[in-house]
Amino acid sequence: MHIAHTMASQHTLIGLLLFLSVDWTLSVIPENEKHPSYWNNKGKQALHKALDMKPNVRRAKNSILFLGDGMGIPTVTAARILKGQMNGGNGEEFSLAMDTFPHLALSKTYNVDQQMPDSAGTATAYLCGVKANYGTLGLSASALRYNCNSTFGNEVESVLHRAKMAGKSVGIVSTARVQHASPGAAYSHTANRGWYADSDMNAADIAAGCRDIAYQLVHNTDINVILGGGRKYMFSKETQDPEYPSYKGVRNDKFDLTAVWLNNKQNAKYVWNKDEFDKVNPEKTDYLMGLFEPSDCRYEIERDHTMDPSLTEMVDKAIKILRRNPKGFYLFVEGGRIDHGHHGSGAKFALTEAVEFDNAIERAAELTSELDTLSVVTADHSHVFSFGGNSDRGNPVLGLSRNLADDNKRFTTTLYGNGPGYKLVNGSRADVNATEADHKDYKQQSAVPLDSETHGSEDVAIFAKGPMAHLFHGVQEQSYIAHVMAYTACIEPYTDCFIPDLEPEPGHAGATNPSLIMLLMGLIPALLSLFSV
User: In the 8-state DSSP scheme, what is residue 155?
Assistant: First the structure.
């Protein structure tokens, strides 16, 4: 009798909770969304916008590649909802800055030797245009990881390097260390992504001529703007960190690579804190290196706003410096710590990093023109991250599912397939409440125990706008990204690209007829063949 009464009470309580949930859900649904006219008008507006869309067939003076490290499609959607909720809405109806890019494609992320990719092999693909092996940077798949001697003769050059050779200004901005895998492929050629400094290498490899990534950062490509973390890899073991007295550099060779980089440069600055960064006048600076942490930058929700600039602030400064070059620029921007948040099963870290990444994209759009700047947003890979779980409209994306699980415990709407969030209490799954789930240090539950959550293997999205952005279409190999960006800028190996270098007349930005230009472009090869007879 007592058991039956207890079960009945539980069912009554669950029913009450469901009733309250339904009542709450009805209260947050906008009234206009209940009427067909709202959705019909919204659909017509989107249709008319699509019908009015014309391809921008100008040459790209400027190119920006935004790389959300680990930003799979579930992360994009969850970040959209979170940013919308941070702005006071339900979240689902919100649009990220990247959502407004008109051209989309999917990218196949596998490495040549591995189904589940890493950030090094993928970076070689989207920056250099060739797929590579897991763990290698700036090398073709003929090179083997950890094999120094396989480096030589297998080097491949990035679009950033080729843009510099074409006379453009170039830059790298990252919330990770600037020697990390994603930015590393822009300037280095290494058989091991972990060779950050010479102290990470053995003497035989150094004697054979292989160089660490930090060394290559300042010697390989003349990069105008370098902003991010990674200070310790630039200084010797005897050099004390300026911000953290207990930290020192890690180099054995006693080089101060910041001094090496500054040598023989005009109008160049090295800074390590926000105060110095803010004092840099972009109109009078041709070179800027800013390294704000010994290793990776802090997560955005833990960042010391008085000491470290945000990703948005770094992008702002970089563009203002680079755009002074009349030949244009190439900029690589990485939201590097999205990936780190996911690896720790920390959805709040990952998603707030993705929101800040989108803020940087939004700021870049304000500083550039879609007429002459190709902007591409993509990810190197995804994660085994998911969200759902019978959640109501407007449910906090970092909150709880409406229903109890079969073990009569709550669960979060965001979960991981594996990772450090796996936890048992007295032999069963741990319970969770809303306060715990929203804490920045909470680890979302994982199905399989691992000390670090893994990457996913599925395709990731490519968003594009600007000159020739319509070339991003369908499902492509990840290496295709580099080819489009090189072709659009008419740099190696596409210096014969036949793309008009058009400067719109003031007040007549849309005066050029794209259809006519496309027709003329199609006639060029035929005319050339006539003259060659």
Answer: B
Give the predicted TM-score (pTM) of the model.
Answer: 0.90
Of 184-193, 410-419, 492-501, minimum mean pLDDT range = 492-501
- For residues 215 and 236, state if they share a domain: yes
What's the confidence (pLDDT) of residue 359? 99
Residue 36 inside a domain? The answer is no
Q: Is 142 labeled as catalytic in the residue annotation?
A: no
Same domain, 343 and 311: yes
Claim to verify: residue 108 and residue 144 sit in the same structural domain: yes
Q: Considering 27, 37, 95, 119, which one is annotated as catalytic?
A: 119
Tokens 């407004």 correspond to 100
Contact assessment for residue 75 and residue 351, using Cβ atoms and an 8 Å cutoff = yes
| CB-based contact 98:358 (threshold 8 Å) | yes
Tokens 């830059």 sit at which residue?
171
Is there a domain that residue 248 lies in?
yes
Count how many Cα atoms sit within 13 Å of the Cα of residue 396 in the half-sphere of its side chain: 14
The answer to whether the beta carbons of residues 354 and 75 sit under 8 Å apart is yes
3-state secondary structure 247-288: CECCECCCCCHHHHHHCCCCCEEEECCHHHHHHCCHHHCCEE
Longest dimension (CA), the chain: 101
- Whether residue 147 lies inside any domain: the answer is yes
Residue 503 lies in a domain: no
Residue (of 161, 309, 118) closest to 228 by Cα position: 309
State the residue range of the domain holding 226.
Answer: 62-383+455-489
Mean pLDDT, the chain, rounded, equals 92
pLDDT band at 533 (very low <50, low <70, confident <90, very high): very low
Residue type, 48: H
d(CA 441, CA 387): 18
**353 and 450 co-located in one domain:** no
Residues 98 and 184 both lie in one domain: yes
- How much is the average pLDDT of 36-49? 97
**How far is the first Cα of the chain from the last one, in angstroms, to the nearest whole number?**
101
Residue 360 and residue 403 in one domain = no
Buried b (16+ CB within 10 A) or exposed e, 419-444: bbbbeeeeeeeeebeeeebeeeebbb
84 and 210 inside one domain: yes
CATH of the domain at 270: 3.40.720.10
